[in-house]
Protein 1
Amino acid sequence: MYSRAVRRGRVPRRDADPVPCLLELALLHPDPDDMDWLVPTSPQEVMTRLLRGMHDEVSASQRRVGSAVAAVEWYAGLGRQVRPAAPAAEGPAIRVLDGLARIQAAMDEATQACTAEVLTVQPGGIRREAELSEGLHRALALRGRGVRMRDLYTHVARHGQGLLNYLELMGDAVEARTLDEVIDRLILFDRTVAFIPANTDRTMALELRHPAIVEYLVTVFDRLWRLAIPLKAPLPDTGIEGISHREQSIAALLAEGHQDAVIAERLGISVRTCRAHIARLSETLGAASRTQLGVRIAQAGLDGPPPSAASPSLSVPDQGSRTAR
């Protein structure tokens, strides 16, 4: 259209309607003698305008490059003045990993460097197949190098077939134990680097290499490990007829004043499942309300640690022959 306007001197306005960019770029403009026609801007003027714009862009880019070079030289000079506190290969003591891709890349790097031991805490109840598959390649690489792994889960994880299949695949390379509740996710490689979540949806993580922090986390893990029950061992009997181990844990958390949603999150179960257990607790203890349930929990000794086998029998109120040993 522009070529035709240059050859003919002008073109009807209606012919240029399908290409409004010609007017927007000022390649065509209305004929002052007849507004129904458009006349072209001379090619020489258009070229001059374009070259001027390109020149301005190049000049701005050169200024930005100059500023960047000056900044790099300035910071490099600071680096020569300050002696590093530790070898550069060790990396920063705390590094924020933003995004799943960066987290996985850092985990892969730590896996490749690991030679002896991996410790993990995996909260959240039954592990989803996607979670297990995401880390399977790292676990298999570790097993292939003879690295030993110890994993902590909640008791609820025992009911996940995916976890059982994973542990069977890993064989003796992995030892797993469970607790009523565990801390948030934690992964430790060779007691030198740890990974913990940095936000609630776990799209950010912290990579920790400070020896004092890592040693503290190792101590926390070891103490939880001693309290945990091997995955292949049965959960201890509560000693109270009609009340399961999970219901005993729920009763203790209810006695502490926690809401259903908090209890469910800490034990790794759904709120619906938690409320079903609370309903069975109420039925077993003969409680008609939450207030009465709290009283019955205290009377049955469920508001604290489980009683030992040598403890005297505790009668469950209004339940006839049911007793708590």
Protein 2
Amino acid sequence: MPSAPPTPAAEKKPPAADRVYRHVKQAVLDRSYAGGTLLTEGGLAEAVGVSRTPVREALLKLEVEGLLKLYPKKGALVLPVSAQEIADVVETRLLVEEHAARRAVPAPAALITRLERLLAEQRDLAEAGDLAAVSDKDRSFHAEIVRNAGNQILSRLYDQLRDRQLRMGVAVMEAHPGRIAANLTEHAELLEAIRSGDAEAAAACVRSHVGRVRELIRGEDR
């Protein structure tokens, strides 16, 4: 009888520290671990099924990323989203996204197709009530426009905002459930402005949309 084929490397479990890192980061971004939550090494080790050593390694990495603050012999505090961080993220988004919206006109057919697909997927996720996935798809919609601008430096800068955008997006939708439908409407308006070839209208849509998010999230997680 022929022997079973070897298990592909891709099917092996990722290293323990990576599993802890992914578990904690996802929970912070979707606010399962809200700002102000104190995480313990023992609790995380039990939750993920690993020893404490990889937990420490993962927490150190997340501290460098600005999501946690480590306290020796106590654990790791999930850092709240500060008012200054909100202001910084929104200012950076406006600078990058307004420029990208203008550059999207005239829009290539492929961009319109991708934005239509992302908007449809966001609607489906909103109906399912998956806030973390909605926030991720929301961010992907905007990132697609930024990538289309063709400036790799701006794209890399924008990618650095990803984690903060996702976390803030979930916070807004939890606090303001009506914002989910409003986001879909505003994305549709932005798509229509790009499709119609009106660069200034597209930039205005971005300015209104991102600015409104700032107003809603201000005061959350302070």
